[in-house]
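Listing 4. Sequential folding, example run.
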Amino acid sequence: MIACYTRVSTQDQNLDRQIEATQEYARETFDIELSDIEVYRDKSTGTDTNRSAYKQMMSDIEDDGIDAVVVNSISRIARSIRDLDRTAERVGEHGAELHIISENMVLRPEDDDPYQRAMFQLLGVFAELEARMAQQRTKEGIAVRQQNEEYHHGPAPLGFTKDDGRLVEAENYDQVCTVLNMIQKDELSKRKGAMELQTSRATIDRSLDRGELYGL
């Protein structure tokens, strides 16, 4: 049995592309039928591996019911280097392979290739570094905007409140960043994004024009 693990960040985002890509890869690589593939689907905003379908897949792996795990990219199976290493170790301990399509990476339990392991860890480092750099760019953009008189008057931008005329991240700031990022990548429509954030499409357009506030 081959496991195809798929994950998206919100309920509105579509899993179809990931499912199609992972199933096609599994069928071609292992010469199997769809009946030999189990698809695990997660829709959540979690930043770690505490997800229901992920948990079920790992349980099935530990019961020796899975021969290989296929994911579309590293970012779908883990959100940090720690999670990536932990997942790869648990998969390998039970004799299963880990196939990551986008990064063209295959980890097999019988392999003892230090170069392969180093490359795998390096990809995780870059993924986490990219996320941290995006966060830093967002903070720098906010600092610059706070010095602009435009933001000391009138309503606060989407995802912000004001404290004595200065921008302060609101409780839904992370959600706003996620939704705007998905809209920019054409993974979510502006209409659905506006519904998700309980705002208007005009506000979505203005927010996209101020991308530096959201790390875009």
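-- end of first protein; second protein begins --
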Amino acid sequence: MTALALILVALTAVVGAIAGRLSAHGLLGAALAAVTALATAGAALAALAAPPVHGAALAATYVTAVVAAATGGAPMVLAAFRFARRQPDAGAGTNDGGPLRGGRVIGLLERTAVVVSILAGWPEGIAVVLAVKGLARYPELREPHASEQFIIGTFTSVLWAVAVAGVGQALIG
């Protein structure tokens, strides 16, 4: 079960990296988000049935969890933005990039910091990450639809990182 969980987490990382490279939209983006979510759910179930990892499997758990959290969040955030645009009052008519630039890199760093904080046993690090991000983005949040994009992107990104960290914690025991 440990190997299955690690393979599924690695699949999440690979699909996330592909989705980030392609900037997948439409049906392909939805499919990549679904594969990412299903692989992570399968990894969580396998991790719950697996004994605690040690040695090389422990190192593999840390590495795959961090990479999967960082890269796997991209299709999830894009899916959340697509869903929000479908709502009649949530960002209708905005362009794909939105008012906040640099979001992909910031999201990647944010998810990495969140998962590392959790796996290191310092969940307070999440508050530090969110505070720094909020202060850095504060001047930009007055642009039309920027606050909605900030909230949707941040919540999706952090929730994704916490979910992947949960799979890692389940494997660690």
